[in-house]
Amino acid sequence: MLQTIQAQLQPYHAQLIAVSKTKPDEAIMALYTLGQRAFGENYVQELVDKATTLPQDIEWHFIGHLQSNKVKYIAPFVHLIHTLDSISLLQEIEKQAIKHNRSIDCLLQIKINQEDTKFGIDTDAIDDFMHNIIAQNITHVRIVGVMGMATFTDDLQQVRKEFKQLKAVFTHLQTTYFSNNEAFKHISMGMSSDYTIALEEGSNMVRIGSLLFGERH
Ligand SMILES: *Cc1c(COP(=O)(O)O)cnc(C)c1O
Q1: Which end of the chain has fewer CB atoms at under 10 Å, N or C?
Q2: Atom of ligand 1 nearest to the CA of 83
């Protein structure tokens, strides 16, 4: 399955994040042995446990909702945080990055779905959010793209519309705020059920769990 997905991603130059939440170390090692290095986790404690025992050259992506008081646990090693969606979280990541004398890469999580969650920046608040970021004088957090999750629905036209919207937000941010910043390039969208649509709509980073590891219980 890994090779099949890799072959589908190749024409799009998209990166695969293998979402290993709730899955045991052995399942991760099975993909590691095949060459996979980027893994995504949703829970801080689980991520810290796995990062401690598994090979050091794994790139750990944090893709779950991140509480400010837990940033300190992942700050020493996290490769990319996909879920930056508040200024207070940004300030805490900056603080912990300084403490660990490193720079931490983050994606802005944009709310594109119709669901009643409070996570993600509203699309109509994105410029205010950017102005707020600029006012913070951040030195140890790098904003390198956007992330979004489509509505959990069978209506694939709806899903496609939401991915188009995320791509449009990315393009707006790139031209308005990051025009001479090559690091701003990632569009993290697409999961097991919708990644082919996401690729067609401009994704260059997909987060796939159940298709690789089997259903979660
Ligand atoms: C669990 C999860 C995924 C992977 O979902 P699958 O349907 O198992 O591929 C991707 N992104 C996020 C944010 C997740 O929480």
Answers
A1: C
A2: 13
pTM exceeds 0.90, yes or no: yes
Nearest ligand 1 atom to alpha carbon 210: 8
Pairing of strands 15-19, 38-41: parallel
Which atom from ligand 1 is nearest to the alpha carbon of 215?
8
Residue 92, C-beta contacts closer than 8 angstroms, at least 6 positions apart = 68, 69, 71
How do residues 172-194 score in pLDDT, each as one tens digit?
999 999 999 999 999 999 999 99
Question: What residue ranges line ligand 1, CB within 6 angstroms?
Answer: 19, 21, 42, 63-64, 149, 191-193, 207-211
Dihedral sign for Cα 89, 95, 98, 100, please.
Answer: negative
pLDDT tens digits for 34-46? Answer: 999 999 999 999 9
pLDDT at 118: 79
Nearest-angstrom CA–CA distance, 169 and 84: 15
